[in-house]
Amino acid sequence: MNAICSLCGTSLTPADMLVGKNRLADGGYLCSTCFNKAISINKELINTLHQFYFAEITGMFLKSKIDASQNQPGAQPSERNYYEYDAPTRLDEIKDQIVALNARLSVLASEEVNALEYVLEKDEKLLAIAECIYLQNKREGIVFATPERVVFIDKKILGGIVRNEFPLREIISIEHHEHLLYSILKINIKGASAEFKLHNKNDGRAFCTVVNGGVKDSGSPLEQVGQMQAFHQNIPGLAQEDVFTTQKQSSEVIFEQLEKLGKLREAGVLTEDEFAEQKKKLLDKL
């Protein structure tokens, strides 16, 4: 089993899974340590954790940290009535930023999220983030924007990170084509473009606002050609739904995704029916 804790990113052990009440509403799991910390914040979570999403639990942890920092004047350390936490790590800061952005990332993106502490610079801040498929190489991962760049990453099963980076100074404009069930994010760079299929169709709006504004302020070629506005394109009916997922993908990518699905099934994140459904979808792309 190689599933990871949604909060701290450590690998879940068989002992963690024996808790039986540590599953979140969006399918993720907490390790026994994080589960005990969550219960320390709210005792009711021992029986109701399955009703809460990752973002909500992270918000509880963040609020508890803030409350803990507001000590009464003159109180001695032994008199402070709050749960003691380890100092927040860089990954904690990144996850807090994701929560603040109201990003809805599935459990399948957990490994990419945990890899962000190695991809982001020390003081680099997330301004937008989304789960997606990079249409040029058909890889699934996350795309995010910072004040300096837009980056796509995919954490490979056997280690390593696939990364495609687009510095803001090279971006001319960014477009958001919204369809019925998904959206396409198109980054226009000098002499080329990059397209991403976003699983949440509303995520592209944040990228357009952040990146187009940042590009304009940076004095890039956008000032010479005029700022391109984001626009919406609705496809009537369901006949044209998800046209990109029918394209054939490389066997290497498909087998990596199948391996990931198998490990999620072993961890109990996916039921047999859910595993079979997702497996069929992947095999159809071969």
What's the arrangement of secondary structure elements?
Elements: H1 14-17, H2 32-41, H3 45-48, H4 54-69, H5 90-100, H6 110-119, E1 128-134, E2 139-145, E3 149-155, E4 161-167, E5 171-178, E6 183-189, E7 192-198, H7 203-217, H8 222-225, H9 251-266, H10 272-283
Antiparallel strand pairs: 1-2, 1-7, 2-3, 3-4, 5-6, 6-7
Helix pairs in contact: 4-5, 5-6, 9-10
Structural overview:
- It is built from ten helices and seven strands.
- A seven-stranded antiparallel β-sheet has the order 4-3-2-1-7-6-5.
- The protein starts with 13 loop residues before the first helix and ends with a helix.
- The protein is an alpha+beta fold and 286 residues long.
- The model is unreliable at 78-83 and 219-248 (pLDDT under 50).
- The protein has helices at 14-17, 32-41, 45-48, 54-69, 90-100, 110-119, 203-217, 222-225, 251-266, 272-283; strands at 128-134, 139-145, 149-155, 161-167, 171-178, 183-189, 192-198.
- The chain is globular, with a radius of gyration of 21 Å.
- InterPro entries: SHOCT, YokE-like_PH.
- Residues 120-212 form the YokE-like PH domain.
- This is DUF4428 domain-containing protein.
- Residues 256-283 form the SHOCT domain.
